[in-house]
Description:
2 domains, Spore Coat Polysaccharide Biosynthesis Protein SpsA, Chain A, globular, seven-stranded mixed beta sheet, alpha/beta, 343 residues
Amino acid sequence: MLIALYLFYGVLVLISAGNLLLMRRPRQAGDPCFEVMIPARNEAENISTVLTPLIEQGAKVTVFDDDSSDGTGEIAQELGATVVAPCAPLPEGWTGKNNACHQLSQNAESDWVVFLDADTHPRDGFVQALSGHLCRTDAEVVTGFARMLPGAGLEPAYLGWVPWILLATNPFGLVAATGKGHNRFTNGQFVAWRRSVLSEVRPFETMRSEILEDVKIGRLLAQQGRKVDVLNVSEILEVQMYRTLSEAFRGMCKNSADIVGSAVGSYLFAAFLIVIAWGWLIGGIGCYALLVLSKALTDRITKFAPWTALLIPLTISAAAVTIVVSELQKGKGSRTWKGRTYP
Length: 343
């Protein structure tokens, strides 16, 4: 048992270290070769943060104003973006974001189409560095991990499970280095598509009713054998997903039940996370050190708050609670976000 625990936590460290060392970083500058699409619903507080650097760096930007009531569309237009508004109510069977991204994709004209969430913040050199990578890659889709800006109080200690689960269990760096395998992943905060592939796959229409659409799209791309580049873009892109602990919990409850795809699977996954979180009590301080190290390494990738690594057992436990609560809310049809209720 002791050897198995050390091996398990050791594998988490190896995958985390491989991702830190081997994931590609876009650094070679190139001329702009893409346009940016941003779905936005009541994002007046964020829209200037994402738009201003893009416009200043010469990017063409289109914003889908998804029935905002706070002036998001007007602000975006004043800043220089093209604004598209819905011509009809949200169609039955569609989630708001999937509909927004699908409508945006119909307006795409460039060779590459980059979808960004409204809570992202492109840093200096974003357009040039990303263009340099897109012009040289043979991938059909490019996605990646941004720098995660912390919210207030204990929000970072809670939300740290999201990048940790992905970066400590999925060998993105190994796939990038060898060209073998598929990570079955896209990050909806930042995804770049070759326009020809976007038109062929029609991902947002295919996943129209999915709340965790980016994960499902990643699995679809793997099934179709399409190459996806997963980058470390923390030097050129930032994101603040949530501002407070309560907001983060509500936001993650919206889609965590869909990670596995069934109620039984969700409860089993939550139980497995509890085992990971506290199994080191059997293995001793060495296992705890390995678990902390895995979190510290993934935090280096996303530039996440380093103090949260020591709290990783509580963070993983919070993930288990979130999945269970999300599943219960899903069963009641009471998952809500930004004024919409999801089944």
